[in-house]
Amino acid sequence: MKLGIIGSGMIVQDLLSFVDTIEEINLIAILGRKKSQEKIEALTNKYQIKKTYYNYDDLLNDDEIDTVYVALPNHLHYEYTKKALLHNKHVICEKPFTSNIDELDELITLSKERKCLLFEAITNQYLPTYKNIKDRLSELGKISLISCNYSQYSSRYNAFKKGEILPVFDINMSGGALMDLNVYNLHFVIGLFGKPENVEYFANIERGIDTSGIIILEYPTFKAVCIGAKDCAAPISSTIQGDLGCIKIEGPTSVLSDVKIIKNDKINESIEVNSNNHRMYDEFKNISKYIDNRDFNTCDLMLEHSKIVMDVLTKARKSANIIFGCEKDAK
């Protein structure tokens, strides 16, 4: 995979810290804004990136690049992914995939027309620990309740309270606690149990954006509660509860670094985790193989999963009457 990176934020710097350890990835270029030139040049020098671009068309016209990684603010995911697909590039797009299900449906259709592979960069779906959790669900017996809490006081929330609107709290940039943190919980639950029958979102809203909220997912025989907060904090943990025992996860559902299975007979057992790699390592290692092998079957499976998550996100926001700026423009 010959990669061009779009963006220079913290998530990109995380990727750059280990991308050279993945032999399937050949990092070709990075794209940044001209106003961030000093930062881009520093990253280019530090990580020995071959090419630097400040114009997206120039990067897309580079035949040496076959895949782009879109790591921009949420509201730009659709636009930049669409343009890459129109240039016949494969795309890895950061979570949340798009602002709503209609945008994602359009991108999926376009990717199939162009015979390009399209993936959402979502850590937990590729972690070996996640597969171990899925494999051991039957040991819990009949599932009754799931609870996932990803509450983390945002370093930007104090500024937001004073009236300064940064991207993560910007209604015009598809921000909010649901799209930033609770999306990990949704991927976690939906990846294990599939599409829920009903979705409802109870959000705390300030200036039109959800600063925290609770999603209730209704399944035929159990309920799942997903909590995401950026205006308050609590111990971050999740549980899957059955009549024979539970799985307990300490820490966010994006990492899965501390997982235990607790049986009713009080026998506790840690589920094996791969703690040596960066949390993003497995997603990029696997996706790069899928792209190199033109594995459209796996791509389709992952897209179907992402579609369910995006459909839930869209329904949840509608239930809380959260309307992004891009959606107002569309109307």
TrEMBL record:
Origin species: Thomasclavelia cocleata
**Designated name of the protein:** Predicted dehydrogenase
Cite the InterPro entries for this sequence.
Gfo/Idh/MocA-like_OxRdtase_N, GFO_IDH_MocA-like_dom, NAD(P)-bd_dom_sf
Q: Which GO terms describe its molecular function?
A: nucleotide binding
- Annotated ranges, domain GFO/IDH/MocA-like oxidoreductase: 139-245
* Domain annotation Gfo/Idh/MocA-like oxidoreductase N-terminal: ranges: 2-119
